[in-house]
Specification:
It is a single chain. The protein is 84% helix and 0% strand. It has a single domain (2-267), classed as ABC transporter involved in vitamin B12 uptake, BtuC (Orthogonal Bundle), CATH 1.10.3470. The chain has helices at 2-7, 11-36, 40-59, 64-82, 87-111, 118-124, 132-151, 153-161, 163-168, 173-211, 218-243, 247-271.
Amino acid sequence: MTELFEFFQYEFIRNAFFTLIILSIPLGIIGTLIVINRLVFSAEGIAHTAFGGIGLSLYFGQSPFLGASLFSIIMALFLGALSSEKKERSDSLIGVIMAVSMAIGIIFINLTPGYKSEPMTYLFGNILTVAKSDIIYSIIFALICLLYISVYYRKILLVSYDPSYALSKAINVKLHNMIFFLAIAITVLFVIKIAGLIMLIALISIPAYIMEKYSKNLKKMIINSIIFTLFISIIGFLLSLKLNISSGGAIVIIGGIFFLLDKIKFTICKRV
């Protein structure tokens, strides 16, 4: 245990730890919205689309984060506009765009001269690269998420569970859907450094998926998801320091273990 505390003498370790704690708030909120609105595949589409922007940015010598931001936000706006379409049609379009964007990213990375280590950071994450500025941005994003869910809680509840009734109450369902997708895109950009594009959807959705069964209402589900995200993040991070393994991978593995345990418990209780 003393050995673990010794790691915190390094600033980059403290930056990573504080970022994880802060991001647990938007992860719990956005993860809940993703799960209750059945947007996991859409969120995955946004995440994988970002890779096309990363590949293009590297090829043209620009910041990969800028390219990822551009592609993911465009995809979010597209999905928001598409939200009124039939699910089968939406899923097909998301799948095609996601695959094409990934292909674009891979091709342009292959065409980029020199050593290509940076794409691996975006694919698999490296939370130890976060800076103090990332902590500040994380705090701002967390506060925005808290403000949005507090001010529009009732409207979000209606839009998520009964969009037809929400429309009858003159609630702009399409606007809130657009906000959901943009929030997902921004969350993806923040979580890339933690878990990478490969694992970030698991990190975002697992806590909310588990907590859905143990929460009486949306408010409880959000709070429980934030707490559970914080729990698996701290355990996974400390484990990664102890074993010298990927922090994002360790966090997702811890979440996955709880997910399997929950499934086993649910199956046994159902049979009994």
